């Protein structure tokens, strides 16, 4: 009986208790050392992320798949091992800007970034006496210019006032010329002179009826005096003689005399002139 009992104990030790003890000894506690533990695993078929709760063989299978899918460049770090490399254009020696910059005014030119560009900014001039072009006038000169403007404006106002007074005087001036009556007939009726004036513009209208004079040509005959000196000192006109038409010259000389120079006037002729308009040399007339 004792022999049978020993055999049974020996059987259970080998078949059950000893393997259980061996497996228990292999168990790793949560704080145990797993540095020498081994795991059997195979590479995962698909690239998937690891998850909490995965077994060790599943975890390492996923990691193995990740490493297997990495390209050579991931390990070498060499640009030469990079696939589908981009084409890098050659860097030009000079690179232009998309939009060029243009200078106008005191300095002209353009800049596109392709080369160095020097721009000389004109200097200011704090004087009204500058003779060199290409400089700008300092703002402080504005006060000086304003002062000059005010001075001239005062003078211009005075000049305009004086001109207004002179214009009024001119407008109201009456020119009453006197003339030689020794060789004319019916003064004031057949022989008369009228003057109209607009500033320096003077119009003289006259009618002459000469006395009959044997063999008289009336050369250089001064008709009237007291007229303003004229710019237009000679004007052609027509002599009216019954049955005869001849030229003559009407002249207002420097002293303001109205002279006639009739030609080929027969005895008993009647000389009748129209009017002439001229510009007075004296603007105050």
Throw out a few tags for this protein.
285 residues; five-stranded antiparallel beta sheet; three-stranded antiparallel beta sheet; 12 strands; rod-shaped
In short:
The chain has helices at 2-26, 56-69, 73-76, 141-172, and strands at 101-103, 109-111, 124-125, 136-137, 178-179, 192-198, 201-207, 221-225, 234-241, 244-252, 258-262, 275-279. By secondary structure, the chain is of the alpha+beta class.
SSE blueprint and pairings:
Blueprint: H1 2-26, H2 56-69, H3 73-76, E1 101-103, E2 109-111, E3 124-125, E4 136-137, H4 141-172, E5 178-179, E6 192-198, E7 201-207, E8 221-225, E9 234-241, E10 244-252, E11 258-262, E12 275-279
Parallel strand pairs: 3-4
Antiparallel strand pairs: 1-2, 5-8, 6-7, 7-12, 8-11, 9-10, 10-11
Largest sheet: 5 strands, antiparallel
Strands, total number: 12
Classify the beta-strand content into a percent band: 15-25%
Low-confidence stretches: none
Mean pLDDT: 74
Topology pattern, helix = H, strand = E: HHHEEEEHEEEEEEEE
Compute the gyration radius: what is it? 64 Å
């Amino acid at each position: 009986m004792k022999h049978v009992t020993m055999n049974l104990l020996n059987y259970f030790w080998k078949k059950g208790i000893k393997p259980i003890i061996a497996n228990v000894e292999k168990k790793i506690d949560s704080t145990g050392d797993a540095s020498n533990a081994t795991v059997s695993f195979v590479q995962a078929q698909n690239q998937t992320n690891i998850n909490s709760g995965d077994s060790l063989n599943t975890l390492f299978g996923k990691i193995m798949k990740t490493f297997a899918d990495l390209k050579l460049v991931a390990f070498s770090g060499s640009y030469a091992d990079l696939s589908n490399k981009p084409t890098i254009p050659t860097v030009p020696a000079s690179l232009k800007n998309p939009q060029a910059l243009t200078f106008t005014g005191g300095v002209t030119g353009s800049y596109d970034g392709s080369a160095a560009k020097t721009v000389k900014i004109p200097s200011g001039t704090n004087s009204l006496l500058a003779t060199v072009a290409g400089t700008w006038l300092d703002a402080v000169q504005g006060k000086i210019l304003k002062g000059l403007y005010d001075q001239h404006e005062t003078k211009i106002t005075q000049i305009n006032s004086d001109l207004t007074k002179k214009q009024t005087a001119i407008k109201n001036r009456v020119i009453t010329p006197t003339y030689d009556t020794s060789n004319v007939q019916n003064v004031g009726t057949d022989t008369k002179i009228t003057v109209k004036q607009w500033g320096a513009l003077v119009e003289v209208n006259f009618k002459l009826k000469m006395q009959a004079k044997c063999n008289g040509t009336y050369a250089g005959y001064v008709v009237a005096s007291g007229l303003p000196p004229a710019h237009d000192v000679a004007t052609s006109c027509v002599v009216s003689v019954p049955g005869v038409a001849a030229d003559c010259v009407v002249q207002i000389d420097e002293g303001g005399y109205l002279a006639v120079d009739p030609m080929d006037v027969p005895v008993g002729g009647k000389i009748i002139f129209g009017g002439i308009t001229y510009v007075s040399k004296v603007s105050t007339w």
